[in-house]
Backbone:
């Protein structure tokens, strides 16, 4: 399974990066390939490539604030979660996506 994610929060500081790290750790623990773009106070980092987006089974977007360039994900299954849920429930999010794709 391949995932891409974009994390952002209103202040663009801690939660953006904590959410990204939590998703990366959860994905690795569950043998899932993930690429995470952060949209923080210093701009877009680790910007997703079209190849990564095209190859992804699912897109995870945080919903605390608007995501820049969201049109890139048109036609892809999108899961919207809060940055807080990414931080606190990263593994549960990854596992739920795995279960839905297995059906």
Residues:
């Amino acid at each position: 399974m391949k995932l891409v994610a974009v994390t952002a929060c209103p202040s663009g500081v801690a939660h953006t990066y904590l959410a990204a790290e939590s998703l990366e750790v959860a994905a690795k623990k569950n043998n899932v390939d993930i690429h995470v773009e952060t949209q923080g106070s210093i701009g877009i980092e680790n910007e997703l490539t079209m190849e990564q987006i095209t190859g992804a089974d699912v897109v995870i977007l945080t919903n605390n604030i608007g995501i820049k360039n969201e049109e890139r994900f048109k036609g892809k299954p999108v899961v919207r979660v809060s940055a807080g849920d990414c931080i606190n429930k990263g593994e549960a999010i990854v596992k739920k996506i795995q279960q839905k794709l297995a059906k």
Remarks:
- The longest helix spans residues 83-102.
